[in-house]
Amino acid sequence: MKFSDNFFKKIENKTSVGKDTILQLAQKLQQGDLKNETTLREVIGELSRMTGRTVSKENEDKIINAVVNDKVPKDIDKLI
């Protein structure tokens, strides 16, 4: 999947996380097991630190449940 610079600009404007950081995280995600709860918690924690936003235990559990059970929207552009 190829993303435009406009896509990355939208994310950077909302999160203050740059394109290079996003691409590094995407590479890490591709190499990891997204059905593994420990991996997912690490990624959520890293995203939380990057964006300066806290994620409650309840929300973290909801995110993990959605990813593990394939309930994540396929159209990423709608999420931003």
How would you summarize the topology of this molecule?
Blueprint: H1 5-15, H2 19-31, H3 37-51, H4 57-68
The ordered string of helix (H) and strand (E) elements is: HHHH
Radius of gyration, in angstroms, nearest whole number: 13 Å
Biggest sheet overview: none
Low-confidence stretches: none
Shape: globular
Distance between the termini: 16 Å
> Structural class, judged by helices and strands?
mainly alpha
How much helicity do the residues have?
55-70%
What's the total number of strands?
Answer: 0
* Strand proportion: under 5%
Q: What is the number of domains?
A: 1
The helix count comes to 4
Please state the average pLDDT score. Answer: 82
What do you see in this structure?
By secondary structure, the protein is mainly α. It has one domain. Helices cover 64% and strands 0% of the residues. It has four helices and no strands. The chain has helices at 5-15, 19-31, 37-51, 57-68. The mean pLDDT is 82.
Key terms:
4 helices; 0% strand
In a nutshell, what does this entry contain?
The protein is mainly alpha-helical and 80 residues long. The chain is built from four helices and no strands. It has one domain (5-70).
